[in-house]
Design goal:
heterodimer; A: 123 residues; mainly alpha; Methane Monooxygenase Hydroxylase, Chain G, domain 1; B: alpha/beta; four-stranded parallel sheet; flat
């Protein structure tokens, strides 16, 4: 078996991609063409397990929820990193401690920034 | 070394009637589609009572409806082929059942399982619908209170016979439209 390859060797792979794409396209077209259709108002309505639709899905809600949730995730992950660090505290030694302090320092800067921007003020 | 005989322990769908020769097989498109539809019915379980429990047994390992190509349950009517109504349908549930049926995509079939769904059963009272065929068309009825899983499988096989013979034109036919009109549907 020779180690040399050229572009022509990849023609089967290219053909396989074509066949895969063609299969998906053809199946989707044929099912639309073969299947019977009856479009009514009730059928086009939103499916709510057979119960009448109430209200609209596009409602306003406060951006505060999103902001608090994202900030929570951020600091939550920080705490997760501290668990393995605490378990291996002795093995990691002084280097590990300073590394963690740097990591937490960066986060503290972020925390101060959040406080200064009033992101945690609910009202 | 022992010789391992490899024999498939599953059933392949039987090919429809057609012209057969060396290296080719030809049949009508309707028959081929019928065979494909028959062996891949997606049921929508509308289970309200004890018949639903029997249906769970039917889906379980002992009876295994997957052997008949129906292991994929659809909990949205959009992808379902078969509406399986299993259990007592109260009159307040009627409009819900009707809407679920109307939101199913064509072609669709309905299987009424057990005495309650088929006729109201022992609940001959003011609050219970005396058979779901008063609000939606039904293709196959399964008797019993509740029916055994074997009977459910028999019902599914009856549905499969209907699905196999379904013609492309049926859902556009005036008879079908008249039948839907009787139920006040478009």
């Amino acid at each position: 078996m020779s180690a040399e390859t050229n572009a022509a060797d990849f023609v089967p792979v290219f053909l396989m991609f074509l066949v895969a794409l063609g299969f998906v396209g053809t199946t989707m077209l044929v099912t639309h063409w073969l299947g019977p259709k009856r479009i009514t108002e009730i059928k086009s309505d939103t499916f709510e397990c057979g119960i009448d639709v109430q209200g609209n899905a596009r409602i306003h809600f406060s951006i505060k929820y999103f902001l608090v949730a994202i900030l929570f995730v951020l600091f939550d992950v920080e705490v997760i990193f501290m668990y393995p660090w605490a378990v291996n505290f002795k093995e990691l030694g002084a280097t590990g401690m300073w590394e963690m302090f740097t990591f937490m320092g960066i986060f503290l800067i972020g925390f101060v920034y959040i406080l200064r921007k009033d992101a945690l003020k609910w009202e | 070394m022992a010789i391992i005989e490899s024999r498939p322990n599953y059933n392949l769908g039987k090919a429809p009637e057609g012209l057969e020769g060396a290296g080719f097989f030809a049949t009508s498109l309707e028959k081929a589609v019928g065979m494909a539809r028959k062996n891949s019915i997606w049921p929508l379980p509308f289970a309200t009572s004890c018949c639903g429990i029997e249906f769970m047994a039917t889906m379980g390992a002992h009876y295994d409806l997957g052997r008949f190509g129906s292991e994929r349950l659809s909990f949205s009517p959009r992808q379902a082929d078969l509406l399986m109504v299993m259990g007592t349908i109260a009159k307040k549930m009627g409009p819900v059942l009707r809407q679920v049926y109307e939101q199913m995509a064509e072609p669709k079939w309905v299987l009424s399982m057990g005495a309650c769904a088929s006729s109201g059963g022992v609940f001959d009272t003011y609050s219970v619908l005396q058979g779901i065929d008063r609000i939606i068309p039904v293709d196959v009825y399964i008797p019993g209170c509740p029916p055994r899983p074997e009977q459910v499988i028999d019902g599914i096989l009856s549905i499969q016979k209907l699905v196999e013979k379904e013609s492309f034109r049926r859902r556009y036919s005036p008879e079908y439209k008249a039948m839907l009109a009787k139920y006040g549907m478009e």
